[in-house]
Write a structure and sequence with these properties.
- The complex is a heterodimer.
- Chain A has twelve helices and 18 strands.
- By secondary structure, chain A is of the alpha+beta class.
- Chain A folds into two domains: 324 residues, no CATH class; 112 residues, Alpha-Beta Plaits, CATH 3.30.70.
- In chain A, α7 crosses α8 and α8 crosses α9.
- The radius of gyration of chain A is 25 Å and the shape is globular.
- Chain B is of the alpha+beta class.
- In chain B, the strands form two sheets. In chain B, strands 2, 3, 4, 5 and 6 form a five-stranded antiparallel β-sheet that branches. A two-stranded antiparallel sheet of chain B has the order 1-7.
- Chain B has a domain of 87 residues.
- The two termini of chain B are 19 Å apart.
- Chain B is 15% helix and 29% strand.
- Chain B is built from three helices and seven strands; from the N terminus they run ββββααββαβ.
- The chains are: A alpha+beta, B alpha+beta.
- The interface between A and B is large, with 50 and 38 residues.
């Protein structure tokens, strides 16, 4: 068999809202390295799609990644010029809308309009699929106001689109690693049941999918785990070979760190059973995986194995779930902690019966309250921010939390200031499995205008 | 043989991830020679006790000896998860630091493989038992 060149996959976003200056250095590194290259942006967390669906309800043209322009504008010309293809789930709830926007952006930049493919099949939120969800979720779904329902689909439609000549592939809810597996499948021409290779590419994708989390982000701990240049982290590039094994690296001169330890942390991130990491493409097994430092900021991942992909696809259903009310007020100076504790008592009494009220004394104990973490007896802290939070099904009831905290200005202990209140709709999530055959996936090219 | 007691974060590092109301926390040895200590001492029982305040419905440990790493999966510890939690840290991102505060008994001859300042120890009685 013909030996194929290494495929480089760079990742320039790990969530919706990631840094928009991340892509340019990655693209320059891909171009400098030469050879086949793909740029991916991973912008969908579990709830991002529901938020996108809500955005689309109020504006039919919205519903894709709000930062789409900001992510692409700095790199679109260079990618088109050098044949760096782009694959992303930034289509969110409206991949078609995102594709149109990209075409318009290209025209605005004076570029030719690229061949853009849109992947379909993940969105199960319409009436036609309600029976499928009812069947999978039974009583749990009854009476809920559904916001979104999406299957985690795999890499095949992405690979097919690339093989058909797509320069940009816009997806909605595909599994995060599939953004990498798709290009690898298309490039190397692996059999689609070559489970070991698919698993290796899947774990390459897993290392990439959170952006800088493999290259020094979410890692630094001064004096224990130092990371140089944290303000200017280099986003990762995976060099995937024909076997699917990969070397993780980052643009020369960028900040951050890639070593065996940063790679191990990200390899296990959001993994449960290491022998069975489930994706739509394959069941990956990292129980015998190894990582090897090849040089500065170069780490080889090998030893990943694969097993046949699951017969079913995971579906996430997001539904309206009441309101989250949060409010804060600060007390500072002598006896600040005692005043904050008195304010908390007032709130507990005034909001009695409304539901469980979370009370945090930021500066004394907050995040780890209840974890046996040095929960100090009423102490002498001199700078304390009281924070309360409550869930309620009814907006009017949830609003009382903010009003009661605001009233502490004039009715509470002495010297309370800096009130901030927030009221947000909550989304609930249900998960289920549906037979793969019920979720046909495909791609189509955006009609040239 | 004398031993010292250190917080786990001198022998290992880790990262928290979340899916729904389930948290996973990796514990990765800084040096292969420290790995057996982790296997022996950082058990499901020890982690269950550390997280007792969150009443996990299950704690499962997976070992990855090739990586000198272990992965803990803790069920129902996130106050309902990111959709329902009232905790400021609704993802439980900080939980690795809770786990990495567990005490670890380290034989003196392995102390050279620990990271961080030598002063970062957990005080013990003269016999070497944890107070």
């Amino acid at each position: 068999m013909e030996r194929r060149a290494v495929l480089r996959v760079g990742c320039a976003a790990g969530f919706s809202g990631d840094r928009t200056d991340a892509a340019a250095p990655v693209v320059e590194a891909l171009i400098a390295a030469g050879g086949p290259a793909v740029l991916i942006f991973e912008t969908l967390a579990e709830r991002t799609l529901a938020l996108a669906q809500l955005a689309r309800r109020s504006d039919a043209e919205a519903g894709y990644e709000p930062l789409l322009d900001a992510l692409l504008r700095p790199v679109l010309a260079r990618c088109l010029e050098h044949g760096v293809r782009i694959v992303s789930n930034f289509g969110a709830a409206n991949p078609q809308g995102a594709a149109w926007r990209i075409a318009a952006l290209a025209r605005e930049l004076g570029l030719r309009v690229p061949r853009i493919a849109v992947v379909q099949g993940d969105d199960l939120g319409d009436a036609a699929h309600r029976g499928l969800l009812d069947q999978a979720l039974g009583a749990a779904i009854q009476g809920l106001n559904i916001v979104s329902a999406n299957a985690y689909i795999g890499a095949e439609a992405i690979a097919d689109a690339l093989l058909a000549g797509a320069e940009i592939v816009v997806c909605g809810r595909v599994a995060d690693p599939s953004l990498t597996v798709g290009p690898a499948l298309a490039h190397f021409g692996w059999a689609r049941d070559d489970w070991d290779r698919l698993a290796r590419a899947t774990m390459a994708g897993h290392l990439l999918e959170c952006g800088a989390q493999v290259s020094g982000g979410y890692y630094a701990d001064p004096g224990y785990k130092d990371v140089p240049g944290l303000a200017w982290l280099g986003y990762p590039v995976a060099e995937i070979d024909e076997s699917g094994d990969c070397v993780i690296t980052k643009p020369a001169g960028s900040g951050g760190r890639i070593d065996a330890h940063t790679v191990k942390e990200q390899l296990l991130y959001e993994v449960h059973d290491p022998a069975a990491y489930l994706t739509p493409d394959v069941v990956a097994d990292i129980s015998a995986a190894t990582v090897t430092e090849l040089g500065p900021d170069r780490v080889l991942l090998s030893g990943v194995r694969g097993h046949a992909r699951p017969a079913e696809l995971k579906v996430n259903v997001c539904h309206e779930n009441g309101w989250l009310a949060e409010a804060e007020i600060s007390y500072a100076g002598a006896r600040a902690e005692a005043r904050a504790r008195l304010a908390a008592e007032v709130l507990r009494e005034r909001l009695q019966g409304l539901g469980p009220l979370r009370v945090d004394l930021i500066g004394v104990i907050s995040v780890l309250a209840g974890d046996g973490e040095a929960a100090p007896p009423a102490g002498e802290a001199r700078d304390v921010r009281l924070r309360v939070a409550l869930n309620h099904a009814e907006r009017a009831s949830a609003e009382r939390v903010g009003r009661e905290v605001t009233a502490l200005y004039t009715c509470g202990p002495a010297g309370g200031g800096g009130v901030r209140t927030a009221l947000r709709p909550r989304l609930g999530t249900l998960s289920c499995l549906v037979p793969r055959g019920q979720v046909p996936c495909s791609y189509s090219f955006v009609a040239a205008e | 043989m004398t031993k010292l007691t250190v917080p786990l974060h001198r022998a290992a590092h880790g990262r928290t991830g979340d899916k729904g109301n389930r948290s996973n926390i990796s514990v990765i040895a800084w040096h292969p020679l420290l790995w057996p200590l982790l296997v022996e001492q950082i058990t499901e029982a020890a982690v269950l006790q550390r997280f007792a305040g969150r009443r996990p419905s299950a704690v499962k440990r997976y070992l990855l000896p090739q990586l000198q790493a272990m992965n803990f999966v803790l069920d129902e510890v996130l106050d309902g998860g990111v959709n329902d939690a009232l905790n400021l840290d609704s993802h439980g991102k900080a939980l690795s630091f809770l786990l990495l505060d567990l005490p670890l008994l380290v034989p003196d001859e392995l102390a050279q493989y620990l990271i961080g300042p030598a002063t970062d120890v957990i005080p013990t009685t003269p016999s070497g038992d944890k107070t």
